[in-house]
Amino acid sequence: MLDRYGRNINYLRVSVTDRCNLRCQYCMPADGVKNIGHAGILSLEEIARMVRIGAELGIRKVRLTGGEPLIRKNLNQLVSYINEMDMIDDIALTTNGILFAPLAEKLKAAGLNRVNFSLDSLNEGKYSYITRNGDLHKVVQGIEKALELKLHPIKINVVVIKGFNDDELLDFADLAYNYPLHIRFIEFMPIGDLLFWNPKRMMSVAEIKQVIQKKYPLGEEYALKGNGPARYYSIESGQGSLGFISPMSNHFCAKCNRIRLTAEGKLRGCLHDQSEINLKTFLSQGASDEELKDLFMKAIRSKPNQHHMDTGWGEENHRKMYQIGG
C-alpha cells in the first residue's frame, strides 16, 4: 500500500489497551486513565479482523502495544489469531516487562516472534521514580526469559532524559556488549504528561553517540530485523548492537511505513497527527470487509508527510501516546 508520498505502508501497530500497570512520569498521569470498559474497546476477534483486512491490503508486520499490552487478558489468543494469517510474517510485542516472564512461553507458543522492552534505568531507585514504583527485578526476569526463549532480536528501548539517566548510557551499552541485546537510545520527546516534558531535558542522538564512543567505537551501520526507525551499529567483539532513534533532531518520517490502530478502534496514520478514522463505529453498523478496506486506504491517503513534534505535543485535549499506542 503506497501513501500519497510513495511510502510503502506494510506495518501495523495495534494498541490492545490504553491502560498500564505503571505510571511513567513522562507518559501516564499519576492517577492513570479513565476505564472505558470492555465495550469501549475492540474485542480480540475484531482486532484480528482488522489485522486480516490490513494484511489483504499489504500489511506484513504487526506489533502489539498498549498502554501495557500484557494486562489485556488472553493476549496469546490474539497472537494465535494473527499467526494463522499467512500474509503476516512478523509478530512483535512492546512491553514494560513487568508481566512478561510468566506469560512468555504461552506467547511464543502462540506465534510471537520477538519482543521489545521499555527500560529507562538500571538503577532500582531511579527506575522506581520514573515509573512511579515499578519493580526493576521483574523486568530483568522478563528480559532473561526472552533470552532463554530466543525471541531474537531482543530490543531494549531507553528514553534518554538529560539529568536523569544520561549517566547510565555506558551501563546500557555494556548490556549490548555482554549479551545478545539490542539497546535503542531514543531522544526524549513530548509524548504524554506535558508537565514533565522540558526541551532542556532532550539529549540529541549526536550527543548520546559522543558519550558512547568514549568506550565503544561504533562499527558499521547495519540492518536489524524490525520495522522501526532506529539506526543500528555493531560493537567490536560485542554480542548485541546499539541503536539510535532521533524523532526530534532528525525525524525519520520520509521512511515511515506504519499506521496505528488504537484500542478503541481508531485508525491513525501518524502518532502526532490528530486525524483518525473510527472503525469501531463502522463495525457497530455492520460494515463489510470491502467498506473497512476503503477506510484503511483513506487513513493511509491522509497520512501526513511528517510530524511536527518539535513544536510540542499540542493542546490538553490532544490524545497522548498511551492512548494511541507506543
From TrEMBL:
Gene: moaA
Sites where the protein binds GTP: 13, 63, 94, 155, 258-260
Binding positions (S-adenosyl-L-methionine): 26, 67, 118, 189
Similarity-based family: Belongs to the radical SAM superfamily. MoaA family.
Annotated TM spans: none
The protein's name: GTP 3',8-cyclase
Cofactor section: [4Fe-4S] cluster
Organism: Syntrophomonas zehnderi OL-4
EC number(s) recorded for this UniProt protein: 4.1.99.22
